[in-house]
Amino acid sequence: MPEGIEVLSMNDIGFDQEIEETGTTLEENSRIKAATVFHWILDNGQWTIDGIFADDTGLEIDALDGKPGVYTARWYHMDNGQWTMDNGQLSEREIFAANRKKALTELADKEDRGAQFRTVITLIKFSAISNPYSEDQVSGVVRGRIATEEYGEGGFGYDPIFIPEGYDKTFGELPAELKNTISHRARALHALVNIL
Q1: CA gyration radius for the chain?
Q2: Of 79, 57, 21, 56, residue with least CA distance to 159
Q3: What is the tally of structural domains in the chain?
Q4: Is the separation of the CB atoms in 144 and 101 below 8 Å?
Q5: What is the CATH number of the domain that holds 125?
Q6: How many CB atoms lie within 10 A of CB 143?
Q7: Peptide bond into 68 cis (omega under 30)
């Protein structure tokens, strides 16, 4: 962030609610999260905050018509567009592994392995002038392809199977410092800084 901008987490401002992501697009979920915190701030009188931003991120696989997209985090639960339940609670690591396995299985007979990670950030800024707020959305994309098997122990989620364009290693193999400069989130944050 530019000098002079302090970023506070939800914990920092005392927000501890669970936000239900009911949108069917990354744009909708990003806005739902930002708007929920925005309205909570209004209700709690925390006008010392200049604005809030929230993101949603998804993996979009070309050969699967953009799936899993908005359902990226819990894709393993989906079967023919319907949610299924697993037997008991899975750990975060098990969920990530199940999602990667589903992606590799779905692409097993596909030649086109193109994909992209996309992050959408919604920024809501408070204003004392006529409108009480303004809203903007920005996004960041990193193109790449899905590997035929998992490589690397780094990162999280789909990182061990996603090879970004211009590289021959997965996000799971690349150093975190490099990934953090070329990732979809980094690109979306650069776009956010440009409108602050």
Answers
A1: 18
A2: 57
A3: 1
A4: no
A5: 3.90.950.10
A6: 15
A7: yes
Single out the catalytic residue among 56, 79, 136, 168: 56
Rounded CA gap, 191 and 195, in Å?
A: 7
Verify whether residue 86 is a known catalytic residue.
Answer: no
Distance CA 140, CA 189 (A): 8
pLDDT single digits (tens) 44-70: 876 678 889 999 999 999 999 999 999
30 belongs to a structural domain: no
The answer to the question of residue 187 being in a domain is: yes
pTM (2 d.p.) = 0.89
- Tokens representing 192 are 């956010």
pLDDT digits (tens, 9 = 90+) for 8-28: 999 998 899 999 999 999 999
Number of other residues whose CB lies within 10 A of the CB of residue 31: 20
Q: What whole-number distance in Å separates Cα of residue 59 and Cα of residue 147?
A: 14
